[in-house]
Amino acid sequence: MFGIKGRKWTLVQGFILWILLTNFMLWLYYYSDLAQERTCPNSISRLRVHNVTLPFQNITSNKVNCLPKVNLMFMKTHKTASSTILNILFRFGQKHKLKFAFPDGRNDFFYPSPFVCSQVKDYKPGNCFNIVCNHMRFNHREVAKLLPPDAVYITILRDPVDLFESSFHYYHRAVPLTWKIKSDNKLGAFLNNPDAFYSKEAFNSFYLKNLLFFDFGFNNNLAEDDPSVHTAIESLSKRFDLVLLAEYFEESLILLKELLCWTMEDVLYFKLNARRSSSVSRLTPELRAKAQKWNSIDWKLYQHFNVTFWKKVDAYGIDRMKEDVKEMKRRNAEMHGFCIEGGHAVEAHNIKNSHFLPWQPVGESSILGYNINREIDPKFKTLCEKMLTPEIQYLADLGVNLWLTRLWGWLKDAFMSTRSPQ
Ligand SMILES: *[C@@H]1O[C@H](CO)[C@@H](O)[C@H](O)[C@H]1NC(C)=O
Ligand SMILES: *[C@@H]1O[C@H](CO)[C@@H](O)[C@H](O)[C@H]1NC(C)=O
Ligand SMILES: CC(=O)N[C@H]1CO[C@H](CO)[C@@H](O)[C@@H]1O
């Protein structure tokens, strides 16, 4: 009898011990997972905020007691005016000595490979940054390791039809299947029979279908009504604090300035990386409809964020927005006058100083740039220079080594340039 009781007792003891142990292990696992997810404490960012708030204290803001936000993730999408946003972020980060997570050797994080922290220059686990903003294929789990949890996530979208036109223009030479299109109107030929020139397995094919969805890390070849499309859009909706729209660029920047508690000067801009208008294909309504259907996931994504965008504008105040956009346009025009020779953009071959010459697509030079005024009020000289510096040159100024990008640029110009229409 006693023996059996004793055996039962040790069984119970063993059971309790086992429960305690598994709980402890679970707790350890959970804790280490948390520690891994949250490598950057908010306190680090607060320290930085204190450091950078000093210059702001006199600047009037619409909100009482708002501190400028300095931790942010900008998901740089392709062909969406995102280079202009990048210039704004570079200027802000440089002015306030913020820490950027930059790529190494090139200007993107090994796009189109999904982002991982090890692509960050000199990255060691536990490193924390203020700003992540170079091209990447979005991967939230990895990005989150670099930033404090209070980081603001922003991105920019553009009407997928215009985005497709632009992406086709810029990248079709890099997608081998399009090489067999014989027509002069390659874009039209493609849209009239996309399946003949597109294969989801083909090299670089993502540039030609639902590029936005691909940039955000999802499968760009899903059917439009696939339930995971809806789930993906919902997850982006939760993840991003603000989604800008290229079509409403000023309104977007005003919302950004409000969200980040920055000043008007911080978000002034010159349109960078704009294309010569003669190189933009005018699509017939029929082809536009085809482009929309071909990029139906991106269209769904855009529709979703177009709605949330206008809700934000409503909340901001329609009249207040109108006033602020007017003021921003006025200040931008003023900066054009101060900084830019002739006050407008010029063709690449007319840019005198190569520091201001933007990167050109393979086989042509259709991207416009600016000449800086010879005589600038010293008060504005630095701001003018920074506002006019294209992405690649600005990255170099910020200390990024770009040997791969430069090598590619040299090969491109040496072997692939056709004489550009002058
Ligand atoms: C900042 O504000 C203080 C007092 O509020 C004022 O004395 C000072 O002149 C202001 N500085 C600037 C640059 O406006
Ligand atoms: C975006 O929303 C605005 C306001 O509701 C609407 O006027 C516009 O047509 C929409 N754009 C697209 C491309 O759906
Ligand atoms: C520029 C500046 O104010 N730097 C300060 C940032 O904060 C640290 C720690 O509080 C100071 O040591 C720096 O002087």
From TrEMBL:
Family classification: Belongs to the galactose-3-O-sulfotransferase family.
GO molecular function, a single term: galactosylceramide sulfotransferase activity
Highest taxon listed in the record's lineage: Eukaryota
SUPFAM superfamilies: P-loop containing nucleoside triphosphate hydrolases (SSF52540)
InterPro entries per the UniProt record, alphabetical: Gal-3-0_sulfotransfrase, P-loop_NTPase
Pfam families: Gal-3-0_sulfotr (PF06990)
Keywords: Glycoprotein, Golgi apparatus, Membrane, Signal-anchor, Transferase, Transmembrane, Transmembrane helix
Major localization listed first in the record, in broad terms: Golgi
Protein's UniProt name: Galactose-3-O-sulfotransferase 1
Topology within the bilayer: Single-pass type II membrane protein
This protein's record includes keyword 4Fe-4S: no
Positions of transmembrane segments: 12-31
High-level lineage: Eukaryota, Metazoa, Chordata, Craniata, Vertebrata
Gene Ontology CC, one term: Golgi membrane
Subcellular location field: Golgi apparatus membrane
PANTHER family tied to this protein: GALACTOSE-3-O-SULFOTRANSFERASE (PTHR14647), GALACTOSYLCERAMIDE SULFOTRANSFERASE (PTHR14647:SF56)
The keyword Phosphoprotein belongs to this UniProt entry's keyword annotation: no
GO annotation, biological process: galactosylceramide biosynthetic process; myelination
